[in-house]
Design a protein that fits this description.
CATH architecture of chain C: Up-down Bundle
Distance between the termini of chain C: 16 Å
Number of strands of chain C: 2
CATH topology of chain C: Four Helix Bundle (Hemerythrin (Met), subunit A)
Largest interface: B-C, 30 and 32 residues
Helix content of chain B: over 70%
Strand order of the largest sheet of chain C: 1-2
Helix content of chain C: over 70%
Largest sheet of chain B: none
Chains: A alpha/beta, B mainly alpha, C mainly alpha
Number of helices of chain B: 10
Oligomer: heterotrimer
Order of helices and strands of chain C: HHHHHHHEEH
Shape of chain C: globular
Distance between the termini of chain B: 31 Å
Structural class of chain C: mainly alpha
CATH class of chain C: Mainly Alpha
Number of domains of chain C: 1
Largest sheet of chain C: 2 strands, antiparallel
């Protein structure tokens, strides 16, 4: 059983090629690192897997669902955290989370329970009823992580998840990922190689849109 | 199979309503957009009314003036709504794309058309709210009234269809403006040409309603049907291609 | 050598536009098209100016009729091609469709300009004024403005793929303007004659033949310019691509 199956994936931006004939597979479970410099194609790859960008050639499947044919099935199963929190500043944390749980078809009572539980876990209960625009960057980031976890996704796509996250929150989030690593898959891109090496099982290194290295994390030589 | 389709349609609409509700709450907390739309509309009505009144000064004592004000004023009202739409509809997607939250909507497991429809509903309600205050003021300042022989139902239908058409076109124009270089200049060149169709139909229908032409018979009804056709075509076409603006 | 090798791979894998390599062989198909167009264009001139007899109502003014109707219909066709190319681009993500669609907008715009100008000349000859704000004139002018705005819009989007994607969407949602221009004379009361009705062409045999031939002639001219524009545009795209590859 594989969580992500990528075969011959190609994507260009204008005249520049961002991903060149990329193929790999990721099994279910575990934390997988995606290393690479700026412009190596990490974000493009994550955007394609999360159905936000169409590939120009090749095939991508998430839990057996083709990202072009059944994007909605794919989106139900992924939780995405990027560099910018996807929150509406005018709305409170609770309203933001309720809005997103409406989009994920959660029952009101279930949604409330999930929000309470996650708020407890990420220690933002006190801030649930404040408009998110007045919150600190770290708190907004925590709310954004809660947003990505509302529908209990099977696959986490985390693009630089620890940037802008203070030490405590990083710890909380890490523990959450560690707890779930048996049956949940996570893909993490990070500049923080030390942290990446600590939490990940294996790695893929991208350079100029091509895979230049992969294997168990113990084989990672720190060269990106 | 059929029930499944109905469910998909039904939940698609409920997502659209959730998005429209979220936007309305946000708008009510910010307030300034709706309020500045209204102020812009009032200024435009004021200027146009002044020009209309002073340029018909030469026929001040003749009944022709009332006729001229009725025919021109009713059309001017839609010109004002058309330009006010620029303020109301342009932020619906541009602002979400600037804050990045559009990505949240694109990531949600909902069809692209729900996002579009949600924004159309929001634009329709926002503009409708402004119109409730604007229309009576405009009727006063531009000096026209709807003929008492016309049923208010038709006036209501005309305004609803017109506002819906402008909202449908305006939301699509906002989505198309997202990737453009200088958004403030590009929005009008996307919105105006597609909305002008609605504008000429609305000016024509409202003029007929104001001078009291019969509904049945050649004229109003045919134009209303044409307007409904345009609303339908714009909503359907935009909804069908909308997902491609989310996955560029 | 390395560069060459690189972009051969590049083309195969990424479906990029591929203009013919090296010096071109004389393409018999193309030459046939040119000669055919030339011959038919001369026949067209002969039929319009000499063969077609003066009409009962229009007299000699029938001659401008052919040069008004044919560009109008081919203009609609050109925008239809843009619509179809837009759909194909969104479906296949192949830039060649975008190039054809974009080229078709420019040519359609030229033909619509000819339609408007010949219509103005005709209107002046028949009614003594160049512009009547007749529904057909109004909707055709809107059509012209809409597609001119589409060209301006495309120029405002920098990223090549995003321009193709959003330009295709705009090309699709602009199409109702074409339909409106086409059906306008059937809905409004208008000065415009209705030539093509449910029962076929409302005109004499000679005039019918001349109109058919004008459509073929202008259609061929359209196809020819489209092909040339597509070739020029794909070469300049390729040039840009090579320049960017060299900078890497």
């Amino acid at each position: 059983m594989v969580s992500i199956h990528v075969d011959g994936l190609t994507r260009r931006y204008g005249y520049r090629v961002a991903l060149k004939n990329v193929s790999f597979e990721i099994p279910v479970g575990g934390v997988h690192a995606l290393f690479g410099n700026n412009g190596a194609g990490k974000t493009t790859l994550l955007r394609i897997i999360s159905t936000l960008l169409q590939p120009h050639a090749g095939k991508v499947e998430v839990f057996g669902f083709d990202i072009e044919e059944e994007p909605i099935e794919v989106r139900k199963r992924i939780g995405v955290v990027g560099d910018k929190p996807l929150l509406y500043g005018e709305l409170t944390g609770r309203e933001n989370l309720k809005f997103y749980s409406d989009l994920y078809d959660l029952e009101t009572s279930t949604a409330n329970a999930i929000i309470e539980d996650l708020a407890e876990r990420f220690d933002v209960k006190r801030w649930l009823d404040e408009p998110t625009k007045i919150l600190s960057t770290g708190l907004r980031k925590r709310f954004d992580i809660i947003r990505s976890l509302l529908h209990n996704p099977e696959l986490f796509l985390l693009d630089e998840p620890f940037s802008g996250l203070d030490k405590d929150s990083t710890e909380v989030f890490r523990n959450y990922i560690e707890d779930k690593r048996e049956d949940r898959t996570a893909i993490v891109t990070t500049h923080n190689l030390a942290l990446g090496s600590e939490i990940c099982d294996d790695f893929i290194t991208l350079r100029k849109g091509e895979i230049v290295g992969k294997g168990p994390i113990s084989e990672f030589d720190g060269n990106i | 199979m059929v029930t499944y389709e109905v469910n998909v349609m039904g939940s698609g609409f409920s997502y659209a309503l959730a998005i429209a509700k979220k936007d309305l709450i946000t708008q009510m907390r910010k307030r300034f957009e709706a309020f500045s739309m209204f102020l812009f509309a009032i200024i435009a009505v004021f200027v146009l009314g002044l020009v209309l009144f002073s340029s018909t000064f030469i026929i001040a004592d003749s009944p022709t003036r009332i006729q001229v004000m009725t025919e021109i004023g009713s059309g001017m009202l839609w010109v004002v709504v058309f330009f006010t739409g620029m303020f109301g509809f342009s932020p619906v997607f541009i602002s979400e794309s600037e804050t990045g939250t559009l990505k949240g909507l694109s990531l949600a497991p909902i069809p692209g058309w729900s996002v579009y429809l949600g924004k159309v509903i929001y634009g329709f309600l926002l503009m409708g709210l402004v119109e409730i205050f604007l229309v009576p003021i405009a009727m006063g300042l531009l000096g026209f009234a709807f003929s008492p022989e016309i049923s208010p139902l038709f006036i209501l239908i005309t305004f609803a269809l017109g506002t819906l058409d402008l909202a449908a076109v305006g939301a699509m124009a906002s989505a198309l403006t997202m990737p453009a270089e200088s958004k403030a200049t590009v929005y009008p060149i996307v919105y105006f040409p597609t909305a002008t169709t609605a504008l000429i139909l609305l000016v024509e229908i409202t003029r007929m309603l104001a001078i009291g032409l019969p509904i049945i018979g050649p004229g109003i009804l045919e134009l209303l049907i044409l307007l409904s056709g345009h609303v339908f075509a714009m909503v359907m076409l935009s909804a069908a291609v909308f997902q491609f603006t989310l996955t560029a | 050598m390395k560069l060459n090798c690189n972009h051969n791979v590049h083309i195969d894998v990424y479906h990029r536009i591929e203009p013919s390599k090296g010096r071109e062989e004389v393409n018999t198909k193309r030459v046939t098209l040119y000669i055919l167009t030339l011959v038919i264009t001369f026949v067209y001139l002969y039929m319009v100016w000499i063969f077609a007899p003066p009409e009962v109502n229009l007299g000699e003014r029938i001659r401008i009729f052919f040069q008004h109707v044919a560009p109008a219909l081919i203009g609609y066709l050109a925008f239809g091609v843009t619509l179809v190319c837009g759909v194909l681009y969104l479906w296949k993500q192949d830039l060649r469709y975008d190039l054809v669609g974009a080229a078709s907008i420019k040519i359609g715009l030229v033909f619509t300009t000819i339609t408007l100008l010949s219509g103005m000349i005709w209107a002046n000859a028949s009614w003594g004024v160049y512009w009547n704000w007749d529904p057909r004139e109004t909707t055709t002018l809107i059509l012209w403005i809409a597609y001119a705005c589409l060209i301006a819009y495309r120029a405002s989007v920098n990223d090549r793929d995003v321009r193709a994607q959003y330009g295709s969407i705009f090309g699709i949602v602009a199409f109702p303007a074409v339909i409106l221009s086409y059906i306008s004379i059937r809905v409004w009361e208008t000065l415009h004659p209705i030539v093509i009705t449910g029962e076929g062409l409302q005109m004499g045999a000679e005039h019918g033949m001349t109109l058919m031939l004008s459509l073929i002639a202008i259609g061929l001219v359209y196809a020819l310019i489209l092909e040339l524009t597509y070739r020029i545009d794909s070469v300049s795209e390729r040039l840009m691509e090579l320049r960017m590859q060299r900078s890497e």
